[in-house]
Design a protein that fits this description.
The protein has 251 residues and is an alpha/beta fold. It is built from seven helices and seven strands; from the N terminus they run E-H-E-H-E-H-E-H-E-H-E-H-H-E. Helix 1 crosses helix 7 and helix 4 runs parallel beside helix 5. It holds the Pfam family adh_short_C2.
Length: 251
């Protein structure tokens, strides 16, 4: 039977912002493809919460740094649903070291997960989106793409590449009625931040310096993603929306 519900893929949705985004999409009536790389238990918990909202959940495991794994993931999506309406490119990783201490495998790993994956996922997503006449792609990035953060050189460059690719894809896919944008977050206290050697310093500095007087929360980023996916954002193309309470405006 042909699937008539809209379908969304959220990479890295076993935890954190990806998990919250998947659940929000389920609340909006989407069936959700829950992607994970390591935490099957987390993916299953996301699926449980998605299904609580009456939506179908499909769990897929894939290392999105590998093109062949991306191909397999999208083949599974096509077989299960036959369509894709939304792709939220949230999966991220990276080596946190000063530039002078980076090794080639550190660079390749970070760039492949954070930038290359968007390109090859988009190449597979677009034909499924074209079946329905439109589509929406939103990536998660960070202000480290435009500001120098300690130990963040490889990740920051990979995020800058992601934002540049967002612009190129937005123009190339506009004629197919596929919107491509990104959401850039300030410092958010997530599991990923635990890997930062200067985590406590980052959190305290952000609390003190953010003009709005509080840290960015996961829900702030999910709200921005949801806006970019909505019809109200139909003329926003190739943009990176910064959600940081204004801290990046300060020198």
């Amino acid at each position: 039977m042909e699937n008539t519900n809209k379908v969304a893929l959220v990479t890295g949705s076993s935890r954190g912002i990806g998990k919250d985004t998947a659940i929000r999409l389920a609340q909006e009536g989407y069936d959700v493809v829950i992607h994970y790389a390591r935490s099957k238990k987390g993916a299953e918990e996301t699926a449980r919460q998605v299904e609580e909202h009456g939506s179908k959940a499909l769990i897929v495991k894939a290392n999105v740094s590998k093109k062949e794994k991306i191909d397999e993931m999208f083949a599974t999506i096509e077989e299960e649903f036959g369509r894709l309406d939304v792709f939220v490119n949230n999966a991220a990783s990276g080596v946190l070291r000063p530039a002078m201490e980076l090794e080639e495998n550190h660079w390749d790993w970070t760039m492949n997960i954070n930038a290359k994956a968007l390109l090859f996922c988009a190449q597979k997503a677009v034909p499924l989106m074209e079946k329905n006449g439109d589509g929406r792609i939103v990536s998660l990035t960070s202000i480290g793409s435009i500001r120098v953060l300690e130990h963040y050189s490889a990740v920051g460059v990979s995020k800058a590449a992601l934002e540049s690719l967002t612009r190129y894809l937005a123009v190339e896919l506009a004629g197919k009625n596929i919107r491509v944008n990104a959401v850039s977050g300030g410092v958010v206290d997530t599991d990923a931040l635990a890997h930062f050697p200067n985590r406590d310093e980052l959190l305290e500095e952000s609390r003190v310096k953010t003009p709005t007087g509080r840290l960015v929360e996961r829900s702030d980023l999910v709200d921005a993603v949801q806006f970019l996916l909505s019809d109200q954002a139909s003329m926003i193309r190739g943009q990176t929306i910064i959600v940081d309470g204004g801290i990046s405006l300060l020198t």
